[in-house]
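Q: Could you fold this chain for me?
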Amino acid sequence: MRNQSRESRNRSWIIAAAATAFFLTASGCSSKPAFSGRVILLSQGTVYVITQGGVDPLLSDVVTAAISPDGRTLLYTKKDEALLRDLDKGTDKVLLPETAIKAGWNEDGTRYYLLTGCPANRLYVGRAEGAPLRLFQGRKGLYAVGGSEGATIEEEVCAELGGCLFLTNDLFVFSAFDAPMPHGGDIYANKGYLVNLATTPPEMRITAFPHGARWRFVDASEASGQVLISVERNPESAELFQNKVYACPRFSDWDQVTFQNEVQMGFSRWENGGWGNAGELAGVFSPQSGRVFGLANEQTSKGWSLYYTVIDPESGEAQRGSSLPLQPGQVVNRPVFDPEARSVAFLANLGGEENVTVCDMNAGTTSKIWKIKAPKGAAFDARLDRLLAWLD
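A: Sure. Below is the predicted structure, expressed as structure tokens.
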């Protein structure tokens, strides 16, 4: 029914997931996938815990979420509030009377960030024991619909704010548009903000991006001491658009940023990047090794297919991994690694189905550990769905 409530829809998702869990774990099922630990998933507003024994829903009506590195605290948002849940006690602490579309933690779980998106367009940082601090207020403006000078109808738009990343436990970086709103055309980030959260108030240093470029701070590696930066050049012109990825040494000031070490791989994209639907290039640092893990595609006699690759950003040496049972264009969200970095899990949206596929990087095998079907005649909206963690 068109007026079906969100609560009843969530019950439908949970029932479907429970049925899937039964299918995957029923006795005598030869396709029962073998994996250890807990995979934490946010799908269609529900947080699930997936184990070898089945699937358990943890929370519903969730907009976005991020789990602390120790797996004990869940940062999540609902329609009109942001909360911290102590997963051991099952208790909640309200942080903000507003929602967020993106959230994340630093390496030791002492700080978090919340990005509200439109229409609030605000960025907050905080500690678990205190109140969040509003770090940045994104610009808003009015566009004439269709960009016509003679149009009388206008719509409110938000300038881009995203690319949020903890470089260290106290050093935070993000990108934003901070200039008079343009009269027409696309808005794109034009400045980077480097924030030292250890000072009171936080010290913020700003750099202007080159004209026609924007930077996305994708990932940071403690193992290699590097930061992965995606650079889009001439984003206002699709015909001249270029996107490259660089492994830069961790920096504490803007004059230390270098773009000399380009990762030589044409990565595919995954959906839930810092800039909404466009996503970001599918590359992250693999734990422990600090090498870049990414998805690439190739054309074979059977058509296009995806495969993963691991690249040493220093030497450029690439190790090809196994193919995935997915096609380019099917949405694959940012993956998570198991605690020992032997396997990696992907959340894929195929329109009529979402599934979590695990790839054993040593054996080169893949297995589907969870799936859910969309309601008849509908497709999934995967913009906020994501894998949150793979825990012991």
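A (continued): The chain has one helix and 31 strands.
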